[in-house]
């Protein structure tokens, strides 16, 4: 995240050169910023790295991540950002990769991963509410991306899907990105594109709900 902040600072310098100081400040204040933290940290770092669990329980690790995230938000605000949406964690226990690795022979959703996501999300929402009261003219919005994806996964036919426990590409059980090599014939039947990411159709459902529920909160 520190690297992203440095790139943002570089952008601000270039923006000022193009439009001037006053216009730059207005653009920064009226732009919408999206921050995504936690999913990889909890799924791939905390639960997959024994060293992390020797130093933290899941609650204290969530606090560690959120302290880092709060500092990042404060830095963004200091640089001129005002309208910031912060995504929570999706139901990571139902990712095809986690079903394969930790869901047993039947590849069930992994409850302790989903519970970790819910814990993180509740802490995140509370932190954003508190931080929003401290940062002048800020609009910090918690964006829930847990409940709708979970409902889609549990009730795929309700949303026009056929397969929710495997991805479209590769075997659908563990591969991501270039490891997929081949794709299914109809990705619109699948909730997941690979073992970690949703398909375009599933993302469209999620984005539509986010826009309907949260867009007005930024303005």
UniProtKB/TrEMBL annotation:
Q: Which InterPro entries match?
A: GDSL, GDSL_lipolytic_enzyme, SGNH_hydro_sf, SGNH_plant_lipase-like
One of its Pfam families is Lipase_GDSL
| Xref: CDD domains | SGNH_plant_lipase_like
Q: Name one GO molecular function term.
A: hydrolase activity, acting on ester bonds
Q: Which domain of life is it from?
A: Eukaryota
Which family would the database say this protein is a member of? Belongs to the 'GDSL' lipolytic enzyme family.
Q: What is this protein called?
A: Zinc finger protein
What is the organism of origin for this protein? Solanum tuberosum (Potato)
What is this organism's lineage?
Answer: Eukaryota, Viridiplantae, Streptophyta, Embryophyta, Tracheophyta
């Amino acid at each position: 995240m520190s690297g992203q902040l440095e790139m943002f600072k570089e952008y601000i310098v270039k923006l000022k050169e193009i439009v001037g100081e006053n216009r730059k400040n207005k653009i920064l204040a009226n732009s919408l910023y999206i921050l995504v933290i936690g999913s990889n940290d909890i799924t791939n770092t905390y639960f997959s790295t024994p060293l992390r669990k020797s130093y933290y329980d899941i609650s204290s690790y969530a606090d560690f991540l959120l302290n880092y995230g709060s500092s990042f938000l404060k830095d963004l605000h200091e640089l001129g950002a005002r309208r910031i949406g912060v995504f929570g964690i999706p139901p990571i226990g139902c990712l095809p990769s986690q079903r394969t690795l930790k869901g047993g022979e039947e590849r069930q959703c992994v409850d302790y991963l989903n519970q970790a996501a819910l814990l993180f999300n509740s802490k995140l929402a509370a932190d954003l509410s508190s931080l929003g009261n401290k940062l002048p003219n800020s609009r910090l919005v918690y964006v829930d991306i847990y409940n709708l994806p979970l409902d889609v996964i549990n009730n795929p036919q309700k949303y026009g899907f056929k397969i929710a426990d495997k991805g479209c590409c590769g075997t659908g059980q563990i591969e991501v990105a270039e490891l997929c090599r081949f794709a299914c014939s109809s990705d619109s039947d699948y909730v997941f594109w690979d073992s970690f990411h949703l398909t375009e159709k599933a993302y469209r459902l999620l984005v539509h709900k986010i826009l309907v529920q949260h867009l007005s909160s930024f303005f």
